Queue: 2 jobs
Job 1
Amino acid sequence: MTLLVQKFGGTSVGNIERIKAVAKRIALCKEAGHELVVVVSAMGNSTDELTNLALSVSKTPPSREMDMLLSTGEQVTISLLSIALNELGISATSMTGSQVGIITESAHGKARILEIKTDRIKELLKNGHVVVVAGFQGTTLGTSKTAEITTLGRGGSDTSAIALATALKADSCEIYTDVPGVLTTDPRKVADAQLMTTVTCDEMLELASLGAAVLHPRAVEIARNYGIPLVVRSSWDNQPGTTLTSKEKRSLGKEGLELSKPVNSIELLEKQSVIGLSHIPDQPGIAADLFETLSEGGINVDLIIQSTHQGNSNDITFTIAEEDLKRTKLLCQKLIQRLGGNLTIQEKMSKLSIRGAGIMGRPGIAAKFFDTLSKSGINLRLIATSEVKVSCVINAKSGNKGLRYVSEAFDLKDKQIKINPTNICNGEPEVRGVALDPNQVQLSVINIPDIPGSAAILCQSFADEGICLHTIVQSERKYESNGKIISFTMNKDDRKNADDILIPLLKVWPQAYLEDGKAIARISAVGAGMPVSIGTAGRMFRALANANINILMIATSEIRTTCIVAENDGIKALKEVHKFFKLASK
Ligand code: ASP
Ligand code: MG
């Protein structure tokens, strides 16, 4: 007998007809012999309606009272669905988050799940019941040991479902929704987006802006960490939908179901060289030329960074394996003869990376990584960030020291430390999906001192205010007084707080100043096969060049290539890249 956790979202239970239809579907599944735990959202828009009611009484309702109010939405659905199931002759019992024993942190409105007590559910399942659980809510014991209702944050029912599946060791967790699954890009922007049959959890996390619309990102993190199969499919047909997969297989430990320690490994990659091309022309097609030439030469490029440019020239920096250095050098020299610019090469470099789910969503993690390195006196040559990995390129001679200090800082055990790991990839595509994030702004701190600690201080200051920096890029070019540029993007909403955070910093660095970039869009191509395919980045740049789109910034990570383009070019860029990688439906 298989144990399934099924979750039905707000639209799927939006009215009585739909609740009855969902009940029929559950009844069929039960009759087919499955054990079922069903998680539901509040009906339709009722969470919004409840929120509006509260806001019509007060602009700043206490968060405890908001949780008390919002948790009633799901309570309506669980009882109605259980009534509908019983009417169909299926024994069903509804339970609130507190009744189940979904224990959370005390942070009202955004509580993370610590553990789930499964005894009561298991007892009901044994007696043949379908257990209908209220999503999005839990309970905390509070400081005074008094139970308090908490909610997990908007969209949190997905997280309730996968957390239950994890605690119950279910065979699968199915998220039923009003779309057929996860698509290769946003269908509102690109009409011929296609359904993905599978996607890895890491890819899904990297496709954040795409994924978040379909699934709560915290649900993906849980599925990733514990390796529970997660399926997204339509409530209205029997199509298989999209399956999210993960190779991780943690077991539930003491640190809480939604991990308080998200870093799960550290990697040191040795024998790397950093190639810098500076003062090359800033026009569409240059990056494409460069990386196509390298890929024709069979050279697998790892990180690529292109920082903001002043005047009309660009700097592009990338890393390769030392064994490819000679050939790379020759190819780059030829290119520079044709285009102009300077070539710099740094040998004997290493890449140190931390890996885990949702790293960039927890702004303190990258900051702690950079800070640990700077306290060990290690200068960061390049930085690459992504949702699942943060990397720094450092001098090879600091590699082991960095590895040791960072492992200690994140409390990593021997088996979590990997030296020169090989990329294994089981036929995964180089690009699985493409996402556009139009809600970012770009900022640069210019002339920041080139000494250990600058990046750490910058990231820490933002992290202290809970602001996540994305696409952090540290330039090659040196400015007056030997300073460098660190550019980064952040959510538009966070921009207004950035000045306050930076003012004290700029006092410490009197020569440095802040510059706002042009309006941007961030476009990312993501694929688990990217690390083993040569030339993916070059192909993405070519797609943009063909459409005459200029790339303002490039930042790659293991399974993601991100380009920052002018805001107006965003949708066009998305369409071109989607088409170029043949993701469109035939
Ligand atoms: N009802 C909650 C919301 O609308 C939780 C959920 O549906 O996932 O955010
Ligand atoms: Mg949802």
Note: Residues 438 and 521 are 5 Å apart (CA to CA).
Job 2
Amino acid sequence: MVENSAAVAAYDASSIQVLEGLSAVRKRPGMYIGSTDARGLHHLIYEVVDNSIDEVLAGACTEISVTLHQDGSCTVIDNGRGIPIDVHPKYHKPTLEIVMTILHAGSKFDKGAYKVSGGLHGVGLHVVNALSEWFEVQVLRGGKRYFQRYELGVPVAPLKTLGSAEGTGTEAHFLPDKSVFETTIFEKETVERRLKELSFLNPQVTIHFSDERDGTQSTFHHAGGISEFVTDLNTATAPLFSPPITLHAKRDSTDIELAMQYNDGYNDTTLAFVNNIHTVDGGTHVIGLRAGLTRTLNDYARSHGFIKGEKESLTGEDVREGLTCVLSVKVLEPQFEGQTKAKLGNSEVKGQVESAVNEKLQEYLEEHPSVAQSLLAKAVQASQAREAARKARELTRRKGLLEGGGLPGKLADCHSRDPAACELFIVEGDSAGGTSKQGRDREFQAILPLRGKILNVEKARLDKMLANDAIRSLITAIGAGLGDELDLTKLRYHKIILMADADVDGAHIRTLLLTLFYRKMPQLIQQGHIYIAQPPLYRLQKGAKIVYAYSDDERDKTVQEFGGGRGITIQRFKGLGEMTAEQLSETTMNPMKRTLLKVTVEDAAKANDILQILMGEEVEPRRNYIHAHAVEVTNLDI
Ligand code: 0RA
């Protein structure tokens, strides 16, 4: 009897805890999954898959399958150990139910294991459950199949046995809550990209993906791991040597894996992961990698006569020109920093990665002299080009084109000198430039019309970039410099807004500009300074009523709201130049009325991918891309 009432008391206490936990998650979903936009939505899938990946890391799982269903729900199945269903000693309920409802339930991880946790990852299945209209979970374990259904995070019935079954595993099927998320439509490409990434990072697993909405299926399995990842990233380029350099080392409890390869281009593509999480904003592991790379290549270059004397040396930019690399580290207690929790903070990791790279890369170069020869020749060439660029910059500086006083002639600057209040509109073409000058608020809005061709930075070195008028005036107007010398304290406008036509040319210019920012001023994107203006496509008028529509759907909806097609005039704006200054201000520029799209690092990376494929030297990927995207290619939007 006594035992019984204790159990009841414990049950009640845990029920209250469950409800409190659920309401905390539902009240502030952003605290748990970062945001409630498309990124947060996709995080639900990642969270479940990360749990399956933990099973892979524990050596208990080889297959994962992810399915997007017609009704907007998603199923993740794995052949891991299955979530335990035995009664939890503290909560007196099946562990499954605790895992599904309570924060960080049970310490499921074996001590000393690297967990996919920290940052926004590893917050727990209960978070996905709390943010789902319904969640049905099945567990295969101990010869039986178990089932339980939840609605808005609350179990609708006790755990049920469905019968006997072979094997072990977990099946999670959930429908995101439409009242929580701004959008609940999963994007196939976003999901696929993450699954592909995970399959490179975890070569032991096979991941099946199926989209029942369009009937497509794919399977990801890359036994070659991150080396294959680098090969894949370099598909559209011409590598200097093959296969990529790979190294693997352990420093204390930190496991470090690196794959790297140079191509004949000029960009640095470094993808860095900590416990399988893509650290978009870098962190101590990336700093360690860069330090190690620069030091090792300088030492080798000096001892093998590629550079002479103490004075000459290769800079970080020199040794990273044309570098494609994937760094994957496993850290026991990762600390993630920054707004999107995508930056590693653990200070000890810098030295660990640096020392591993120093030792293992040196070894590799000594054992592969022809690889060493080709990559050092490239770095030395980069160094010479850097010297040429410095001279070119000095020249432009002397001509007064860069820095202070020498603002570009085409810039219609604003009056305010407070960067935080100032906005720069980058406008395509002269006629749109004229309209936007009239439509702006000159107190804080500046206009820079861009004329002529914008150089594709994907294929150009710094000296050539600075010789391009459009790029030079852009850099001068923004004021913060570029590359390693970028200084955000000199930024002249905190909002830099790309305003291009909603057509193919506009999309093209936007792609080029985003690539420029992504490659040469990534901090501007990371710190949220880059925006895309959203000009309307249509103006609808009926009598005195005027409505602007930003899509064909919106246009059709407005026509309906106006009560049919009669007496409605619809004007289609083919470009910004067709709007009056007043219209442009009212719809696109005035902060009280406009909507701006903030560019994320992912957006810019996507733009860069598109550009690499469309403009790259390799014909085959371009042909494949155009073939695969034959329909969308008329509007290469990002
Ligand atoms: C708690 C403990 C154990 C595994 C899991 C949860 C688990 C969760 C998920 C979510 C999706 N797939 C999953 N697979 C396993 C450890 C189990 C044990 O030690 O037997």
Note: The chain has a mean pLDDT of 88.
